[in-house]
Amino acid sequence: MELTPRTGPDSGAEGEALASKRIRSKRNRLPALAMIVVLLVVGSFVVVNALGSATTFYRNVDEAAAQRETLGLTRFRLQGTVVAGSIVQTGEGVSFDVAYNGVEIPVDHVGDPPEMFKANEAVLLEGNFDASGSGTFDSNLMIIKHSEVYKEKEADRLQQADMGGKVPVVTSVPGTTP
Q: Which Pfam families match (predicted)?
């Protein structure tokens, strides 16, 4: 059995050159790896913040009233129906009450309400409970859900719009059948 040390590329001048080359190669990789780690951390931060702000929770009026203490000043979406006779125009917008399952919450909305805003309509509001503890919901975003009546009344116009306006308009003369 041969027990003498080997000589080859890993020993002597050639071996030292290879070892030096490996060390330089590792040094060259460190900035690239550091950059990748930084990009992953920054990307993760951006994604978490984007998802955090996109998760504004919906609450019905009765749920929000029951959770008023725990919600505090957290921003959320409140849905309910505008109570008839409660709408009052203010200098900054409109005040009214919303109800759901027999529970009502007063609302102070800043900004102009949508055209379809009226009593007994479903409304979705985004905001938070007033910091004073009055139980009023402060809103700055209002979305009105309209009924399906429009689709029934305007079926021909909607079909025409879906077809790019290329549906021929049918006109009938009274007393004739088309």
A: CcmE
